[in-house]
């Protein structure tokens, strides 16, 4: 109960009083205050904030975007474990798995997609493999 006076009255009604505890075999009676409709309805949960492409990969609580697409500027030569990859949108991602790939592409399209359990994967056009990555910047 939200109202302090109603809550106190409810406790007082349930607890034995001096008048009914003095009688042997007396059973305390409870007077329950009626619940109002406003007190029984819980407020609706707030909608999660919308995620922008700039925030993608930074805050795991923001999950409105499933992926982002951008480009790698210059010659992309693939990746090795722990490589840092700077994308055209200014984001820096690091390879966190043991995968590697060797390829030479000029300004390829890059997609970072959300995986299960908070994982992110780097996909590069014309490659049939991906690397697990985490965002640094």
Written account of the structure:
This protein is an alpha+beta fold and 137 residues long. The chain folds into 2 domains: 4-40, no CATH class; 53-135, no CATH class. It is built from 3 helices and 8 strands; from the N terminus they run αααββββββββ. The protein has helices at residues 4-14, 18-21, 37-40, and strands at 67-71, 75-79, 84-86, 92-95, 101-106, 109-114, 120-124, 130-135. The strands form 2 sheets. Strands 1-6-7-8-4-3 form a 6-stranded antiparallel beta sheet, with no helix packed on it. β3 and β4 form a beta hairpin. It is rod-shaped. The chain starts with a helix and ends with a strand. 12% of the residues are buried. The mean pLDDT is 79.
Give a short synopsis of this structure.
The chain is α+β, with helices and mostly antiparallel strands.
Topology:
Layout: H1 4-14, H2 18-21, H3 37-40, E1 67-71, E2 75-79, E3 84-86, E4 92-95, E5 101-106, E6 109-114, E7 120-124, E8 130-135
